[in-house]
Design brief:
Belongs to the exportin family. It holds the Pfam family Xpo1. It comes from Halocaridina rubra. The chain is an all-alpha fold. About 65% of the residues lie in helices and about 0% in strands. It is built from 53 helices and six strands. Strands 1-2 form a two-stranded antiparallel sheet. Strand 5 and strand 6 form a beta hairpin. Helix 20 packs parallel to helix 23, helix 33 packs parallel to helix 36 and helix 51 runs antiparallel to helix 52. The longest helix has about 30 residues. It is globular and about 100 Å long. About 35% of the residues are buried.
């Protein structure tokens, strides 16, 4: 037999081989198996402890300690008392002997193992545990080890992560709470010792010069000036902190030696964790907080950063800024507590005073730099911003009206702190704080009778903030920062919704500039909700000034060889023009965003300003198109893209104002005279504006404009066609020309689709009631001819010919997709229109829809066309179902069912992992969902076939698949089928309505049971999305139809469902859904609580492996019979926790152990 030394050498060889670069994955798995088998041996802990004591290999040490950890957590109960004592004493002795030389991660692991033992044994079988830990603080050699122990105790005993019984958890929390005063006192004395050790070198920070200027900040209102003025409340608050004569919080520590810095950092870390779970109470003394704030002030001192850069602190384990970060972390833990005892509020106020002294220090100017913040550690600034966020979100409401807390001066400091930030992320954090503050103001206004007084108190602050944000997004004021941001503009056109051209995506593909601008603009919009007139004026003025310069640029153009050139080439003029154009584009987006301020009740009183804005925008659009500024030659290339961007943004901004124009056309401005005659008081204005916008949109389509401008013009045209319905469009020459040239207006197929949709809308959508002549017959005739112009080719396809000709199928696929796509979007836009418009459009496209149905079997193997056909039919069923008629609907659905079921296309599509084919199946299921939701009797005949399709053709294929593809729409369909066709299974009768008969009678029982079994099976699989979806489906059915109370469910399935859900809780396979699962168990158990407590719990425990009879009895007796939801939830959590604990303990016992 190999000696321990030989075994250690073999283990070191295995570990080195495992982590070697040349080791294959196969060999690693072999080594893992060897190591796992070794760790499961009885008595492996003895060898592990020997190896730890005699190896210098960190891999071996960590493996052995991890093995011992598993033994402590899973086999401790099964060890003999002398074995437990040997493990505990050996580990503790090894820590004492090696804590200074062992790597920190080995030391921390050893400490955790001792604390793990205490978690199971203290105080009953390890009475001197806490005494030993506290004794470590008496010696300088072991004081750091003591702090590590204290933090590990807080982490592992306050909220134990491993399986423990509920009673033991409660006991540990109670025992540990009794030790909290001692722990806090010890940590306070340790931090005080660090301060006292260096107090002779402490110097006070001189106050800022009263004449020191803040020239780095742009001109603001009086809020931007320093609030620390002689005689103000805030200056009195900060007086003692700044002077350094009456309180030690004003001191600044010099650089600490390595030992002191280590003690301080470990103590602050430990305090942070303690603060995360102990309640706010008198245990947290002012003395302790003053000491923490003293360390927090280190992060606000640039001198420490300079010392580090000069090498003064290079040998220290933790820098001065890091101590500041740790201290702020401890403060933030206290700030995050929303439940504050009334007698603690004065204490909090003192904390805020201390923190805002740091804030005042942070925004102080430094010589030879624009901002003190740029000299500080970024992580410290992040922590401080987090404090500000917590203060505003959690505590501001407590102190807003406190005479001892000057809110306006605080906002002044926050303003300066915000606009002195040196990084975009730090600035965004500050904007989040302001956003929370604005939400707070909005909530106050909603609950107040006097809106004016609430807003007027903060008027100067909000106006200063708005001006600061506006300066932040303009190159004229912030060029250095903005030029560093990526400014890619997407030219991709969106067909599905109406958004600005540079809002194509809000995900990771968005440019840095877009993200930066949007964040600022949305905060500006929040301010405008509180002060609409003032904020709009602040934005309007610079936009109007920039627009005037833009509209005068033709004076600087010259003709050269038939081409126009911008005669601006001076070195300083081109950058100025670049800044002007970029800022103009930004201001245009702001003007568009604020169009919502003019809607609804505000429309009449602000209509004059709105008309001025629209006229100016139309003027800019016509100017840009008329002079073809996108073709003008420039001295530098960047100006060309700037002109294109401005032109495109003008059109997008006009599009944002289309909603206002549509409201101006509204029925509230219609006057009805005797006899039924109607007039609109703004009709002439509406028609004029509509015409101007139409001209601006159509003029860019035939002048060779870049794609970005064309896209924006087409989107504006489409918006006008949908939202502003009037005869103006059909009377306009430019629009009439489009009907002739629509198919050739652009090489971009998406542009052509949008133009066709807009032109159809002009003819199809109803005009307002005040229009005298609606010209219905003329519009119908033109609409029919126009739709035929781009659908005739599809309607003329010979189905038999194309079915036999593969090349013809490929050649026509693109045409089919384009045509069906246009019709699909157009049908979608009819969703909120009148019946006449739907019937008119259906009469024009019914042949196309019928052709799509006939082509489906032909293209069933062509996923793209197949998906487009099904997408079209989904929208048709949603919008034109009545016009289609029950006979045609039945024939359509039967066609799809026949194709999918008779040729096994469903199974093939799902099993081949083809994403396009899967999307086809999902579209088909969505179509069926619409059908089974219909209340009409004619659609009920599809229910049996739909259930057969789902349960016999689709479910068997997807049930065992890990991926959620098809599963989600399949269960959505089943849920919808049950919700809308409950009577198919549970049919009421006259006898039932009179109180006689069997309320639980069921029809089609076999199908119902199959569906329920599918839901139940999904709870045994790992997909959390499907699990949650189906859990909500069952709860919805129970809420509407008392599903759990039905005899068929109650008698044969209820117990199975509860069992499965409880097993999920036991095995922790869906931990994120614990609350939802417990609520569902409660609702199921509430069907018959007596049976649940008396019979089910016992039956569940009897069938649960890994428990002894006495343990089963204990679990059953401890499961209280409360029937209210909160208490039931707690009881279930305790029941599951104790059950897991017993199973863990039993698994650790050696075979043959008698369980008492």
């Amino acid at each position: 037999m190999a000696t321990d030394l030989q075994s250690l050498q073999a283990l070191e060889g295995l570990m080195n081989e495992f982590f070697g670069a040349a080791t294959t994955n196969i060999r690693k798995r072999e080594i893992e198996t060897i190591l796992s088998n070794f760790g499961q041996q009885r008595g492996a802990w003895k060898q592990c402890l020997y190896y730890v004591a005699h190896t210098h290999n960190s891999y071996v040490s960590m493996y052995c300690l991890t093995t011992v950890e598993n033994i402590i957590n899973k086999q401790w109960v099964g060890l003999m008392p002398d074995e437990r004592t040997e493990i505990r004493s050996t580990l503790y002795r090894f820590i004492l002997e090696n804590h200074k030389v062992a790597p920190y991660y080995i030391r921390n692991k050893l400490v955790k193992l001792v604390v793990d033992i205490a978690r199971l044994s203290w105080p009953h079988f390890y009475p001197d545990f806490f005494t030993n830990v506290l004794a470590l603080a008496r010696s300088p050699d072991t004081v750091t080890l003591c702090i590590v122990f204290l933090q590990t105790i807080s982490e592992e005993l306050a909220c134990p992560r491993e399986e423990l019984s509920y009673s033991r958890r409660t006991e540990l929390r109670r025992l540990l709470s009794q030790q909290v005063p001692t722990m806090l006192s010890l940590l306070t004395s340790l931090l005080e010792g660090v301060v006292d050790k260096h107090k002779n070198a402490v110097t006070a920070t001189p106050p800022p010069s009263p004449t020191h200027s803040h020239s780095h900040s742009p001109p603001r209102s009086n809020l931007s000036s320093s609030p620390i003025q002689t005689g103000t409340i805030l200056s009195n608050m900060f007086h003692s902190l700044e002077s350094g004569t009456t309180t030690r919080t004003g001191w600044l520590l010099p650089p600490l030696d390595s030992e002191s810095e280590t003690i301080a950092s470990l103590s602050l870390n430990c305090l942070t964790h303690l603060f995360s779970w102990i309640p706010l109470s008198s245990l947290i003394t002012p003395h302790l907080l003053n000491t923490i704030f003293l360390f927090a002030s280190l992060g606000a001192d640039p001198q420490h950063n300079k010392m580090k850069q000069n090498g003064t602190l290079e040998n220290n384990s933790v820098s001065g800024e890091s101590l500041g970060v740790l201290a702020m972390g401890a403060i933030n833990e206290l700030m995050s507590k929303n439940c504050v005892p009334h007698d603690f509020e004065d204490f909090l106020l003192q904390m805020f005073r201390n923190t805002f002294q740091l804030l005042q220090r942070l925004v102080r100017d430094e010589p030879n730099t624009t901002s003190r913040l740029q000299l500080l550690e970024p992580s410290y600034i992040d922590k401080f911003s987090e404090f500000l966020r917590l203060f505003v979100s959690v505590h501001l409401r407590r102190f807003e009206n406190n005479a001892h807390f000057p809110v306006l001066e605080f906002l002044s400091l926050l303003f300066r702190y915000t606009f002195q930030q040196q990084s975009v992320d730090a600035y965004f954090n500050c904007l989040d704080v302001w956003s929370i503050f604005l939400d707070h103001l909005s909530a106050k206004i909603q609950g107040s009778q006097d809106r004016t007084s609430v807003v007027s108190r903060y008027e100067d602050a909000l106006i200063s903030l708005a001006r600061g944000i506006l300066h932040k997004i303009q190159l004229r004021h912030n060029q250095a920062e903005l030029e560093e941001l990526d400014h890619e503009i997407s030219e991709e056109i969106s067909e599905g919704n109406l958004i600005h051209y540079d809002e194509v995506d809000t995900g990771d593909d968005v440019s840095e500039w877009h993200s930066f601008f949007t964040k600022n603009l949305e905060l500006l919009a929040k301010i405008s909700d509180l002060m609409p007139d003032q904020i709009f004026s602040i934005v309007y003025e610079p936009w109007n000034d920039a627009a005037k310069i833009y509209l005068s640029l033709q004076s600087n153009m010259v003709e050269q060889n038939g081409r126009r050139r911008l005669n601006i080439s001076a070195e300083h003029e081109c950058p100025r023009l670049h800044c002007l154009l970029r800022d103009l584009s930004s201001l245009l987006q702001a003007i568009g965003r604020f169009s919502s301020l003019f809607l609804g009740e505000e429309l009449p009183k602000r209509s004059t300003t709105a008309i001025q804005v629209i006229e100016k925008l139309v003027q800019m659009a016509n100017y840009s198109t008329g002079f073809k500024l996108f073709e003008v030659e420039m001295a530098v290339d960047v100006l060309h893209s700037d002109f294109v961007e401005v032109h495109a943004q003008v059109l997008s901004t006009l599009r944002a104002w289309v909603h206002w124009v549509s409201q101006l056309y509204g029925q509230q401005f219609v006057q009805v005279f005797p006899g039924g005659t109607q007039t609109h008081q703004h009709q002439d204005t509406c028609h004029t504006i509509n015409k101007q916008m139409l001209v601006a949109a159509t003029n860019v389509l035939n002048v060779g404009a870049p794609p970005l401008i064309v896209n924006c013009g087409v989107q504006l045209l489409l918006s006008l066609s949908v939202m502003v319905r009037s005869p103006v469009a059909l009377e306009l020459n430019q629009v009439q020309s489009l009907y002739i040239h629509a198919q050739s207006i652009s090489p971009d197929v998406k542009v052509r689709r949008l133009i066709l949709r807009a032109l159809v809308n002009f003819l199809l959508l109803p005009w307002p009631s005040f229009v005298v002549d609606h010209r219905l017959e003329t519009r119908k005739h033109h609409l029919t001819n126009f739709i035929n112009s781009f659908t005739t080719e599809v309607k003329k396809i010979d189905i038999q010919a194309i079915a036999d000709d593969k090349s013809m199928q490929e050649n026509m696929s693109e045409k089919l997709c384009n045509t069906f796509s246009i019709v699909r979007y157009q049908v979608g836009e009819l969703n909120n229109t009148d019946k006449a418009s739907r019937e008119l459009y259906y009469s024009c496209v019914q042949d196309v829809i019928h052709q799509a149905i006939l082509l489906f079997p032909v293209y069933v193997q062509h996923a793209k066309v197949c998906e487009e056909i099904l997408s079209l039919m989904v929208v048709v069923m949603q919008v034109l179902r009545v016009q289609l008629g029950p006979v045609r609907v039945e024939a359509t659905i039967q066609t799809f069912l026949d194709v999918f079921t008779t040729r096994h296309h469903l199974q093939l599509a799902i099993s081949t992992h083809n994403p396009a084919a899967v999307r086809v199946v999902e579209k088909f299921l969505k179509l069926l969902e619409l059908i089974v939701s219909e209340p009409g009797q004619s659609f009920k005949r599809f229910i049996p076939n739909t259930i057969t399709l789902c349960m016999e053709h689709i479910y068997p294929v997807v049930s065992e698949k890990v991926s959620p593809e098809v599963k989600s729409p399949l269960f959505d369909l089943l849920r919808c089928l049950l919700e809308h066709n409950w009577k198919y299974f549970f049919r009421p009768s006259v006898h039932l309505s009179l109180g006689a008969g069997n309320w639980d009678s069921i029809e089609n029982e076999a199908q119902f049971i199959k569906i329920m079994q599918a839901f139940g099976q999904s709870f045994m699989q790992p997909d959390i999305t499907i699990f949650k979806q189906n859990l909500e489906a069952l709860e919805s059915l129970n809420s509407k139809y008392k599903l759990y109370h039905k005899a068929v469910f109650r008698n044969s399935m209820l117990g199975q469902f509860i069992t499965v859900l409880l097993q999920v809780l036991v095995h922790r396979s869906q931990d994120l859904l614990q609350e939802e699962i417990t609520i569902t168990v409660y609702n199921m158990a509430s069907v018959d609580f007596n049976t649940f407590f008396a019979a089910f719990v016992l039956h569940f425990l009897q069938n649960m492996d890994g428990l002894g009879d006495d343990q089963r009895t204990t679990l059953r007796e401890n499961f209280k019979t409360d029937t209210d939801l909160p208490t039931f939830t707690q009881n279930v959590q305790r029941f599951i926790n104790d059950l897991r604990y017993y199973r863990t303990c039993n698994a650790s016992l050696p075979p043959g152990t008698v369980k008492l």
